[in-house]
Amino acid sequence: MRVLKQDAEKEIDRLRKKGEFLNGFRIKHEGEFVLVPVRHSDEEGEFEESHSKKMRHVGSFESIGDFYVIKRRAGWEAIMDEILLKRKPRAVFIDEGVFGRERRRKLTRVAGEGEPEGIVKENGIRMKVNVEKAYFSPRLASIRSHLLENVLKYEHKLVLDMYAGVGPISLLLLKNNINTISIDVNPFAIDLLSYNLRLNRLKGNPIIADSNSIAHCISPNQVIMNNPTQDIGTSEEIVRRYGKGTVVHFFNLASKDFLIRWNFVDVLERREVHGFSPEDSLFYYLLRLI
Q1: pTM for this one?
Q2: Angle, alpha carbons 162-131-72 (nearest 5°)
């Protein structure tokens, strides 16, 4: 739970009395906020453990439902051994990278059994995911919540989620009564999104299509572009098509010193989401066309 520093002591006391405070983890400070570990959260991996189950390799893996995903790197075997010893997962998979227009991960199961799929809970919504057939990362839960806060600050009669995937952003917006059109080129992702709409008793507009080709046919107040590995030139061309005043939530994987300097937008916010390598990070930009 994210709370302001000045409210933290009172809020932590309230959570302890309700039994919602998650013991065994250290409270984390983030600017003017305090991140408090609570029960029923999918973000336990972002907190430092203070007991014997403390993981030395936090940040080197993703915990998704009852399985784990490790990016292939030198020493991944040690990470797997620690997960198997301290977390007892159903399965562990090695991530070989994301490929193609449909953004599918190449995964290899190295321990346990079954497929890389399950039900996850995030920001008050439930989702069925299969991280091999449709991209999903639990590491983006916090920035998705922040994105919602930004959407609500501006006109949001219609929001376009261009690369919707299984729906972690679309579902969150729809839950907050924001009219959202969801597009993805991956048919399996749209199938999962349709399932997740029913799972959360929501009504949406999922479309199987190449967003880059049809996005200009829609005139939304806000656009979400969560396709961070897309060529920056392609993204610039797409953003340029929208009208003055359109708000764009743009994700970009780039070197840590890279800045967007497009002369047709105001950069309202630039936020580092997480590191990707020693040189690169994932960034979230809040842009408005001028």
Answers
A1: 0.77
A2: 115
Same structural domain for residues 284 and 146? Answer: yes
Pairwise CA distance, residues 131 & 64, whole Å:
9
Domain count, the chain: 2
What average pLDDT score do residues 97-109 get? Answer: 89
275 and 148 part of one domain? yes
pLDDT in tens, 166-177: 999 999 999 999
User: 158 near 220, Cβ under 8 Å?
Assistant: yes
Mean per-residue pLDDT over the chain, rounded: 88
pLDDT at position 12, please?
Answer: 83
Query: Domain span at residue 260?
Result: 139-289
Q: For residue 264, name the pLDDT band (cuts at 50, 70, 90).
A: very high
Nearest-angstrom CA–CA distance, 43 and 21: 13
Place of tokens 């950069």: 267
Q: Does 249 fall in a domain?
A: yes
What is the C-alpha to C-alpha distance for residues 136 and 42, in angstroms, rounded to an integer?
13
Rounded Cα distance between 141 and 42, Å, is 8
Can you tell me which residue has the tokens 């994210």?
2
The reply to whether 280 falls in a domain is yes
Token reading at 260: 């967007």
Question: Among residues 62, 60, 90, 91, which one has the least CA distance to residue 78?
Answer: 60
DSSP annotation string for 61-105: EEEETTEEEEE--TTHHHHHHHHHHHT--SEEEEEEEEETTTTEE
DSSP notation for 107-162: EEEEEESS-SEEEEEETTEEEEEETTTS---GGGHHHHHHHHHHHTTS--SSEEET
CATH number at residue 189: 3.40.50.150
Mean pLDDT confidence for 34-51? 63
Res 57: pLDDT: 57
Q: What is the mean pLDDT of residues 204-220?
A: 91
Phi, psi of 163 (to 5 degrees): -125, 70
**% pLDDT > 90, the chain:** 61
